[in-house]
Each structure stands twice: as C-alpha cells, then as structure tokens.
Amino acid sequence: MPERRIIAGLLVAWASLRLALAVVLPLGDTTEARYAWIAREMARSGDWITPWFAPGVPFWGKPPLAFWAQALSVRAFGEHEWALRLPALLATAALAGLVWDAARRRFDPDTAWRALLVFTGGLLVFTVSATVSTDPFLALGVGLVWWAAMTAERGPPTGVGFAAAALGIAVGLLAKGPLVLLWVAPPLLLDAWRRPSRALRWGGAVLLGLSCALPWYWAAETKTPGFLRYFIVGEHFERYLVPGWAGDRYGGGHARAPGTVLLYTALALLPWTPWLLRRPRPQDDGERRLLPWMLWPLLLLLPARNLLATYVLPAMPAWSLWLAPRLDSASRRRWIAAALVTVLACTMVGAAVWPGTPWLDRQRSAWAVVAAWRRYGSPGGVLYTAGPPPYSLRYYADGAWRTLPASAAPPTGACRLAGVDDAPPAPGLHRRAAFARYALWCDSGKAHAGQGAAPRPAEQAEPPAVLGAHQADEVQAQPGPGAARVPHAG
Q1: Tens of pLDDT along 226-281?
Q2: CA nearest to 312, candidates 125, 65, 88
Q3: Are residues 309 and 425 in the same domain?
Q4: Are residues 299 and 427 in the same domain?
C-alpha cells in the first residue's frame, strides 16, 4: 500500500476518534468548564470587551480571542460541548495545514505528509486539539510567524509572508498576550542578523500586529482598571518565576521543578520521541533554520516553576518538521507500527473516559451529579453545596447552586451535595445517588423526577462592580435564560 494512503488512513482514524470524544465527553475540570462558562456568558450577555469570571468579577487571566470564537460558535450552533470545542479544533487544523505547507516547501511532498502525521499524531496535539482552551490559538499565532520565516527564501518575506507574520502577532496578543513576543522575537532577531534585508520586514510585521491588538488592551483597561497590572506583571512574570504563585485570582499555581519543560516536550512528542535519536540524512538549510524555533522555547521555559504541559504546544510544528525526515523509508515499518499502536491506545483511553465510566466521574466532571439532581430535585430548585463547587458543576447547574454551611440544613425539598463518605448532612435527607467523589442527598418527601432542566432562581440585585475572585465563590446564583438577566457591563 502506498505510504500516503497509510498516512491518510491514520489521520482519518485519529480525527474520527478525536471528533467523537469532542462530541460526547462532558466538560471537565478545571480549565474546560471554567473557560466554557466564560464563553457562554459572553455569548449571552453580548459583552465582547471583558470576559467575566462571575457576576461583577472580570476575568483578567486571558485576552478574549478564544472566548470570542467560542461565544460565536455557541451563538451559531447552540450551547453544546462540541460547539465550545470546535474553534480549538479549527485552529489546530489550520496549524496542521501550515506544518504540511512548510514541509512541502522546505523538503518534499513525502516529508510533508510525514510531518503532518507527526504533528497530528503527537500526544499533546491530539489531546489539546479539541478542548475549550486558549493554547491552540497561541500556537496558531506563533505558527503563522514560524511559517512566514520558514517559507521565506533568501530575500525578505513576500507580501503573503509579511501578512502572515503580522496576523500571527495579532492572534497571539489576543489569545494569550505579550507571551507571543517572547516566543517569536529571538528566532526573528537571529534570522534578521543572518539576513539583514529581512530586519525591516519583521519589524514592520510586529508593529502591524501590535497596532491590531492594542485597541482591545486599551478598551479592557478603560472598562476594568487594574487589568494591565495584573495581566502583564502577574500572568507573564510572576506566574512563571514564583513557585506556587499565590497571586492567581482564578485558580492555583502549578509548582514544578526547573527543567520540567524537557520532560513535557518528550511526552508531547510521543510516540515519535525515540526518532529524535535517529541520525537523519545530511542537514540542509531548512533543518538548521528549525533549531531556533525548537530550542528557544526550551531555554525560555527551562527555569520556569509554574508550568503546564500545554505550554510547549507552540513548539510542536518545528519539532514535527525536525522529526519528519527521520521517519524515512528504511524505518517505515517501525513508525507505522508506532502510529497504529498510538491509534489503538487512544481508542482504549477514549473507551475508558466515555460518559458513565467511573474515571470520568472521579477525575474530570460533575455532569453526572447535576443530571442526578435534575432527576431527583424539585423543579425550579437549587443545588446546595458546603463550599465552592467545581467549575463543571457551576457550568452544568447553570447558576442554580448556592453555598450552605456544613451544619445548616437546606430548605425543605431541596438537594444537597456532600462528599461520598460524609455522614447525612441534615435530618430528613436521603442519599439519592452516589458517585466517586460526591453523594446527592435530597428530601424524600419532595423528591421526584424532574422534567427538563431546572430553571435558575429569579433576578437578584446587581453585585458590586468588581469582587475578589474568592468572593465570587460566595455569589449564590445568577439569573438564567428564563429570568430577566442583569447585564455584566454597562
């Protein structure tokens, strides 16, 4: 069977499995459910300037590009999990197209197909490609600049390359902020030093990208003062250099040992990591030009202590082109076998996390808890929790939750969430459903099967203009689709 047909079949298998998981999996904690909540509120409120973390609490952690795309998708297709994940999938598909085109231009068509296989079949890209996340958009922004640099010949970049670089800067600034400049500046400066005729072009592309993105930054700071201080200093410096950074308003730090980025990169490239040790054909100029895009992210993140595995995603296109020539015809059986084993492993993992499996309930989502509450709770009621619930419960309960002290009894006929091993939270409550992490307790006299989604409570008074993020956990409920809504913004 021709090699390209084998690769095409593998790509179809990967894409089909990833699409199926994107459609059927509920939103998981914490990133997906949190960003889905923000995007849904943007779609409902029509506030396209400020993403909102909770009523009265602006979300300063990320710029709005991903939320714009997700909110538009929700408006177009409805409030479905797959609609929220679709923009990230499209961004990844666009990036895969850039990988294929860059490999075709720098090497040959066969190497281009292998580069596409390496990129789409890598563990990190497969995992992140259809999630409610901002990382695919940053990767697309960096990828556009990388593509412009890789496809430029010995002279300055063409008009298309210049436009792609400027667009990439703007996308990166609106997806994750000035971090995109840290990613692309050293490789571009090195390229300009080697070929001085490109310096003005790259500088002009950066300025054009900045001019496209800065108006939103000005509007965001004007609307919610304090945004720039928190976002620029906190999110771009303290997050990476301060172990267990406590300044995060919307989550917790991720303390890691320096050098963890090396492990994350090796894991991200699986199953292709062993081919890094294989000696390729003699290097050409195309491979040498990949080195800054591969090695600079490692140097940048090497001392980082607050680190996630997804931070290495923008470097995957360059690594894919580096690995593609090493998947030559001599080792064809081995890399095809590695790809088939990966498809099988991904299928098994997909079956393990399918809705209704214990793993999903234990680790990733409270969707089953909310489904049980809608079945056993009183229509129009509220789900009570002893403390701030996980983001997935907030999303699926659609605001119809309230915090209640552990010693207090919920109103008659209400349901309450407790730990699966906890004692009955109040007299007269009976355990209606138990899950890996939670148990649902309801009043037996009023418990009956509800029909459809329980509406949220009636309109409340407008909260303060800006609350602390932890104060937002005490906001008990927000008005729902069936009730008059208090707009987030003036």
Answers
A1: 898 888 887 777 766 666 666 666 665 566 788 889 999 998 998 888 888 776 65
A2: 125
A3: no
A4: no
